[in-house]
UniProtKB/TrEMBL annotation:
The modification N6-(pyridoxal phosphate)lysine is found at residue 601. The keyword Transferase applies. Its EC number is 2.4.1.1. It comes from the Bacteria. Belongs to the glycogen phosphorylase family. This is Alpha-1,4 glucan phosphorylase. It comes from Grylomicrobium aquisgranensis. PROSITE patterns: PHOSPHORYLASE (PS00102). Keywords: Allosteric enzyme, Carbohydrate metabolism, Cytoplasm, Glycosyltransferase, Pyridoxal phosphate, Transferase. Phosphorylase is an important allosteric enzyme in carbohydrate metabolism. Enzymes from different sources differ in their regulatory mechanisms and in their natural substrates. However, all known phosphorylases share catalytic and structural properties. Its cofactor is pyridoxal 5'-phosphate. It catalyses: [(1->4)-alpha-D-glucosyl](n) + phosphate = [(1->4)-alpha-D-glucosyl](n-1) + alpha-D-glucose 1-phosphate.
Amino acid sequence: MTRLITDYTGKPLNECTELELFNGVLNLVNDAEKEKGYNTGKKKLYYISAEFLIGKLLSNNLINLGLYQDVKKQLEDAGRSLADLEEFEYEPSLGNGGLGRLAACFVDSLATLGLPADGVGLAYHCGLFKQNFENNKQSETPDRWLQWGHESWMRSTGKHYTVDFGGFSLTSTMYEIGVTGYGSKCGKLRLFDVDTLDERVIRDQISFDKKQIAKNLTLFLYPDDSDEDGRILRVYQEYFMVANAAQLILEEAQAKGSNLHDLADYAAIQINDTHPTMVIPELIRRLTQKGISFEESIEIVRAVCGYTNHTILAEALETWPRAYLQKAVPQLLPVIEKLQAYVAERYQEPFVQIIDGNDNVHMANIDIHFSHSVNGVAKLHTEILKNTELAPFYQIYPEKFNNKTNGITFRRWGVMCDPALTSLINETIGNDWIRHADDLKKLEDKKDDPDFLQKILAVKQENKQNFTDYLKNYRGIEVDPSSVFDVQSKRLHEYKRQQLNLLWAISVYNDMVEGKFPTRPITVFFGAKAAPAYIIAKDIIHAILTFSKVLDADPDASKWLKVVMLENYNVSLAEKLIPAADISEQISLASKEASGTGNMKFMLNGAVTLGTMDGANVEIADLVGPDNIYTFGQSSDEVIAHYKKADYVSREYYERDPKLRKAVDFLTGDLMMQNGGDPENLGRLSHELLSKDWFMTFPDFEDYCETKARMLADYEDRESWSRKMLMNTANAGFFSSDRTIAQYNEDIWHLTPDTDK
Ligand code: CJB
């Protein structure tokens, strides 16, 4: 039965405002979702995460529900367009980067595989900040994505819980966003909020009174945590998330007949990074309140919980001073102290204690002791956890450690964002790959078919042209679609080394000044937000923006090299950029990128990786073989050895390599200053590189430049390059999040799929 949008708008579509049309299609989707129903089963997974970077939902839901073509046609027949509606739709900004986008891919796959599961998190009103560029610098403004009210995005369930903090309590409201599975039933994202939130407490840009918890609790994802009030607010947020989750989980399990001793038969919890860690002591607290002994409560909770580690960077392995917990959640501290006593009784090794000698509480240590599973997110990352970062834990609990290499949903990152490639694949091997991603391997049969290779190139050119048009029409940026599109898009962090790419670009410029020009014009795209308090990351953005002005001001060089730093990079922009990419820059310092998931999206869309042997790049290299990836740089073992010996001196490289020296000097040179460069920012960046370079940019510089030059030369053999593209798409099947989720389920959660479609 065809659903008519007019049944939802109540008037002809050509008379509707964009908002009326948007709400009409949204309500149509809501009804279709409810009619499909939800995956159910005795045991349910609660995937608790501080971030769900879901992206725009309308088209994705239409695709998953099989309504896309029909709705598109109804709109077209009335002279309206789905593409316009997509532009009008506001992107929910409930996440920051890879961690949040992974959670969003996971809920899609959970629904698609028929697994009973909820995503559980917070309904931040402003989410992550909106990035603006002024005077070659990033500034931040609130991203008021909920401006049309909760109801345009989520349904209030009418369910409320009480959450106690030190000295006061708050009442929550639970909201739901439907998660449509592809050709299957649906799942739910359950987001908690406080009714007392008051957006007027925002003072200036993104600063606000951090002490008024009732008014600011869910205002921003990641409040500025450069001061103590900001850090304590994180504790309030995290506890609010898990105290709600714990009540929901216990209530639902009991409603299904659990006597709580058997909670693990009814519930599995996945703790996504350390942010939801307090769910462990909170559940133990609640179970003991119900008369279950402390020891048994530990066993129950351990059987329920699994923990995923997403990084070896110390900054993200949260530790909270005991005083913060005492202030925000005093009822939890005695439980955490008892857990510490439990650990101390069994293990003497200082590294594995929960509370250290300085009274800091190590959240990851709680997770590892009191979960039954600890996983890393790529093969290399898990090995580093076992052998280096968490080695003392691995010695105690070898059986807990396992790897679950990340994945991406092929519905959003293939079908939705790359319709041209999708049509070509569908007409070649059918459309089963959308659900059974390994099918893509069949494309390899075409690797020596010149006609097919031509078609792949034509698809890429079409996508580059589309992105070029988008930049011109929506952003006023002109790029050359026949140039090589060289793309690095991800959060701005020193370990991801946008600065390495920048130094390479500066060297290309320096070569041009000496009369050596590239074979073909190159456009280098960066997309990245820097955390507001991360000074050096913002300096790197400033350097990139300033250098792009240097190029624009030079009539000769600008024909050959253009640097575009895209403002406010987000999921929607990624969906346009990734299908247009020729080169996928994955150049983190080996050992530091836990997995990466952008690398997988680019690969699926036929970009060729230029990367270090880090994170999931290692597995990409294994899958595509050495002819279809360009790797360079130190190995993770070498990097780890340098850190251990503390023997890296960046200045030695600077002094030894004239090309590097020239590029580094350029940062603080006249041309940068003449084009809006700020001596303070650029001086600090240069000083950081020369005196520290903690993420070892310089040792990899030469190899990076040589490898990139080889890659650009190979790009000129168009047929051979298109074979590389094909081999990347054909071997991307392993990186479907359906595979990842199936593995989590088999090894950790043991949920029964709801096959009653
Ligand atoms: N990651 O995005 C974040 N935020 C954190 O706080 C810690 C890690 C990223 O998680 C992704 C999903 O697992 C990884 O692919 C990525 O390497 C990691 O940086």
